[in-house]
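Can anyone check this?
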Amino acid sequence: MAETVQLDNDGPFDVHLATPPDGVAVKGGLVVIHEIWGLVDHIRDIADRFALEGWVAAAPDILSRGGMQPALGEELLAIMAGEDDEAKSTVQPRMREAASPIRSPEYARWAIPSLRKTLDLLESQPGVDGRPAVTGFCFGGTYSFALAAADPRIRAAVPFYGAPPEETTLGDVTAPILAFYGDQDERLIDGLPEVTAAMTKAGVDFTPTVYAGTGHAFFNDRNPHAYDAGYAADAWRATLAFLDEHVA
């Protein structure tokens, strides 16, 4: 079952809340943080898939406030998934214009408390019993790292192709982290050795998984130019096993 819940943090924001069907035991709670496209159907679908596996999944919309409403995100994602190169060339400028507020430090100071309120929502759900975790993709992968550093309630984090927080905050991470990357995602891959060393220095249980021959957004089945079905299936299985081990 899924519903939209409205929370408030200096203004309202929506959360897609998906709960396990009757007969499926609750394993815990999971914050699912969207990509730069916002709370589009792809992310709602992922939350619903987690619910079928026993997770109360909450996917907050933390980009509408910054200008990337779901309808715009769906439109831009559809263009990127298409074959019109001229139309694709308009996506990045439109995205930068729409979402420019999110690049400010002030936006992060709003987003992290909003994610923590999403955690509060999860912890109020029957069966969660103090067992929250977080996963996210791209923009949401970055915020998965950040939430793990900001809130000690997080018992496991699974960021997909996200950038970690500043090294100075890594000492605040108590949750184990399973992170996924494609080896063609050059910016993140180039920095991965340094990230791994910093995680080790901070005592973080950090497991990076790098898939060969694929790049950014390999889990996004709405974009055939990025999606890799085999790696997505493998990452899904690994994610469920990791959450079962550390949270359920």
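Reply from J.R.: I decoded it. Residues 2-246 form a domain with the Rossmann fold fold (CATH 3.40.50.1820).
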